[in-house]
Amino acid sequence: MVKKCLSWQGILLLFLGLFFLRNWMLPMVSDDIPYAFIWDGADRGNLLDGVGPRQRISSFEDIIVSQWSHYMTWGGRILGIGLTQFFAWQGKELFNILNTLVFGGLMLLLFRIGTGLSLPKMNRTYMLWLVFSFWFLLPDPFLTTLWMCGSCVFLWMGLLEFLFLLPFALKYWQPDFWQEAPRWTVPLMAVSGLCAGWSVETGAAATGLITLLALWHFKRQHQLQPWMVTGFVFLCLGGIMLVQAPGEMVRLELQRLYEYNPGLPADMYWTPLMFSINFLECFWPVTKLWLPLLLILIVYWRQLPQGQRWNKDTKFQAVMLAGALSVMIVMMFVPIAPARAGFFSTAAVIAASLSALKELLPQQAGFYQRHKGACQAALAGVLALCLSTAAFLCYVEWDVRNQWLGRIDYINAHQDQELVIVHQIDVPPFANAICEHWTCVTWNTDVLAWGSDLEPRPEGSHNLMYAQYYGWKKVMTDGEDRRVE
């Protein structure tokens, strides 16, 4: 039925149309609002309680000044946060369009990396697998692909990281690729490596390991070229600039002094309790979603003859899995390990699964004929699940959008008051129930409580920034503080 009605391009457009709709329904929330202002490092930045008056960003010069201050007093993610500040200045509408293109671009990029094939060789099977993977298997997709700040840090930086890996993958699949590499490949890979390294910590680390293994392979094959070494050197340089930002230690001290953070006390770091929390909140929520991806790898591996199981495809799969799993293991030893840290890792496993799918495709027709009924039932079930989850997500996000817009109208009608108290944003109870089992796919109470909604305290940083952004005096929510766990 899918084959008769839609090409792979049609499937992609439908999927991106739904993604764009969800982007459009999501307002600027959480850190999006504070980053619409120039970062004031001299006054504790923009994200801590009691923040003072700030100046709105109105030019590229403001973004440069802001990012320098941010780098020196808060953290090293200047590319992702710089993009956030650009979109906070230009408006959410531009972000909605470009974010949809980046999302689709990452899907196509993983196809190129995982198979080594050109886009004309894309087909419905590849695209349906990509849609399934991106719809159901990405960790914290609401926070990593839709929320503006989170998307700039994870989705957009993931695109930079995989763009850097693309030439290595194409060289691996096609030995004649850049056989006589042009001179411009060296500066190109230098810039690409710097951007990939200076992206986000988890993705940069995994990219570094994958690149190191690629260099080892090409050296053994006597195919090592200057652009490869240059790219790796600048990747490392970018990573150093990211993690050694002077603001990292400043931020930790400021958060200790001023931020509401009932997290794990420092004396509980690297204890069984910390490892248990990291496993339950980061490692397992991410890796359990890899099971369908690993299944196709196992199916491919098992059908290989005994002496052919270590081949070009399985080597590629092993390298991608090594990069993915290494990050997840390291995150077990980090005091604060959110599931969204596994975004790059999951994308890498998706690329590995595509390489297995490429080798299994010649058997597709025969398998379908032998199990026609089961295949049709499985496809119908997946399509029904996709449609039902799409309806669920859009219902929840439309409801929350209307609450946000209604809140703005209410505050505008009472903006002469010194303090306006508004009702907290609520989600349908079933949203919380579903998100318990399927990571963070849409609004839930935890997302609202931990930074996305306003707080029942007038001095909260998001309350103050929200009021400044819309030109009001002070605003807070009713009810109790929902951050108490």
TrEMBL record:
Transmembrane parts of this sequence: 6-25, 94-114, 126-146, 153-170, 190-215, 227-245, 283-304, 316-337, 373-393
InterPro entries tied to this protein: DUF6056
Keywords in alphabetical order: Membrane, Transmembrane, Transmembrane helix
Protein name, UniProt field: Uncharacterized protein
Species for this entry: Selenomonas caprae
Upper lineage: Bacteria, Bacillati, Bacillota, Negativicutes, Selenomonadales
